Amino acid sequence: MTADERSGGATGGRPARPSEELTPLPDLVHGRPRAGPVRRRRPVYVDLLPPCNARCPAGENIQAWLAHAKAGRYEQAWRQLVADNPFAAIHGRVCYHPCESVCNRATLDSAVSIHSVERFLGDRAREQGWMFEPPPARSGKRVLVIGAGPSGLSAACHLARRGHDVEIRDAGAEPGGMMRYGIPNYRLPRDVLEAELERVAALGVELTCNHRVEDLAAERAEGGFDAVFVAVGAHLAKRVDIPACDAGTMIDAVSFLRGVAAGEPPAVGRHVAVYGGGNTAMDAARVARRLGAEDAVIVYRRTREQMSAHEEEAEDAEREGVRINWLRTVTAFDGPELQVEVMELDESGRPRPTGRFETLAADTLIMAIGQETESAFMRTLPGVEFERDGSVRVDGSLMTGCPGVFAGGDMVPGERTVTVGVGHGKKAAHHIDAWLRRVPDERPAKHPIATFDQLHLWYFADADRRVQPELPVEQRVSGFDEVVGGVSAEAATFEAGRCLSCGNCFECDGCLGACPEDAIVKLGAGHGYRYDYDKCTGCAECFEQCPVHAIEMFPEPT
């Protein structure tokens, strides 16, 4: 080996200087990496909207209170629930739970029994004496609520919790509206209703019963009210001309149910016919059976698929011995006989007469063809406009054309249920509060809904839905005892645990265990996780395994 070779040759015997290295040392602090994968997408924790939350007319954060119930934090679950809906024990019984109709779990096995957990929490609150937190400060503003039904009571509760002085005025002898006078005891026991109402009264809400408002403008001025919420229920029965004689009894369903609720049930005879296809018709027929009717038949001019009653209401009625005659219309009532005409559907699906008649036995005919609201007392208000059906026209904030006067529940067009009414009360309270305080009334846009196809269900095992106990049929029709029972604490906790937590992280640690780069930092129980993007390569392992789609991959920002 020559001297040049021993000394490096290329430098003629001189040692190489650092500046003459063919490959410079990498800068490990600055600049982009020049080896390994280049991240094109990055994972981000997201919050999607669960379909149950999106479908709830009362605006409940169902997923949140189910999570508390799953962990056994029952009072915290109840407080989360009543932040949106003050009447958990009532809704757990009478709501038709549209939230369950869109539950993603139904595609896996069966929907979460949300209403049974809600009822459990409401009953637990009643047993434990839980009360609403008082408002931190009084606003000095006065609000008049017309109507002590679900919508008016809901608005009053939410307004009182915001610090406003609220008075409810109602024409009835006792508060509750159709919850008291339209829903029978076997669905809503009166002690449950009373407990929920007492909790609202404890907030300082003033209640004036047996007070019919005749001139709203005058009452608002005389009482010095800063705002008004009108929530009068639909108590006026719609009329239809049916030839009848004095041999039989004809009564509207609202009056019939009200009389029974007030302890003054009418004599109905052995054979009762109910004309109509809504939930009120189903209740009227079931009540007639409990009053001693051996035969109760519902006459409805459309088909089962076209009825306005909820399917479970019709099923319960039929289980209790009520017969339903579809595609029939009443043409004459000459007790003890009822004449009906057979109908058929035309090409558009509408019923039309056929000229064929039938005779049914009927000592009493109960008319259940719908109700209307009383709105004449609002016609003295400037700017208020009415729809063709007599309901009040409102804007997106539920305010009428008269500044400071809002309306909801049965007073405005829409579905007439307890839950819808309570939701209107909550919405109105929010907008009334903003209007009184003269603050911007803006809410952020809702998140996208988490759909079933977005979920990765490897995490969840099969779990059968817990069933509520029910009275035997023969025992139901012998009295007004509650038909459906509640579930135990164990069953409620189990049912809450069936929730898939669609679209929202529930800290299962799956992402933490799946990340090959140790790029996920756990922030502690209840605080979730964060990404260390200096380590993350964008491999999407966390996204692929997340069972609830609480992680989304987004393009790397440029």
Automatic annotation (TrEMBL):
Its EC number is 1.4.1.13. Residues 527-556 form the 4Fe-4S ferredoxin-type domain. Transmembrane segments: none annotated. GO terms for molecular function: glutamate synthase (NADPH) activity. This is Glutamate synthase small chain. The keyword Transcription does not apply. Residues 1-36 are annotated as: Disordered. Keywords: Iron, Iron-sulfur, Metal-binding, Oxidoreductase. Pfam families: Fer4 (PF00037), Fer4_20 (PF14691), Pyr_redox_2 (PF07992). It comes from the Bacteria. It is an enzyme of class 1 (oxidoreductase).
